[in-house]
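Exam revision sheet. Question 4 asks you to relate a sequence to its structure. Input first:
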Amino acid sequence: MGFLDAIFGRTTPPKADLEVLFSVPQAALSLEVQGFRFLGRGAVCFRDSEGSADDDVIAEVEQIITVDEGARIERTQDQYGFTWLSVHREAGDAIAVATDLHALNSSLADHGFSSALLCSTFLFEYQGRTLALVYLFKRGTFYPFVPESGSAQRRDNALELQIRGIVEADVPVEKDLGRWLAIWGAPGLG
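Answer key, structure tokens:
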């Protein structure tokens, strides 16, 4: 932070610790014991930049990830204009998905696109419902997001709090519930 930033009260957001993504497989095990199942899917959400600079980075990482048979990446855009890169692996393979999402996030950050990164998701199934463990890139923390089944844009807050209790020993959980943002339109969540 520079002198003028200090005077005007501007702060620089802390650099996210992407290594924490590798703690998700342990959280997946903790959730599995409680009846949750990791679906082998995850995604990175970012604001796509104009031009092809980020496209080149994504294509490079995509080639690395899809060298492994059974891995595929899908690119979609949600209703809010954010781009999602979804990784699909064998159900239960949390280590491979964490590695893939780490590669996507760090490649974009290393090439100057860290300010465009928003979050990453890891998808689980519980009693026929799909939910996500969400990593906030700029905060370096996780929170659960559980859309209510059969309901348009409603959340199951009780289940979200239950999941928080299960994973808080495994991953850094976002303490500020106001930052547990709804990610409507995220791939795999309906």
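Marking note for examiners. The mean pLDDT is 87.
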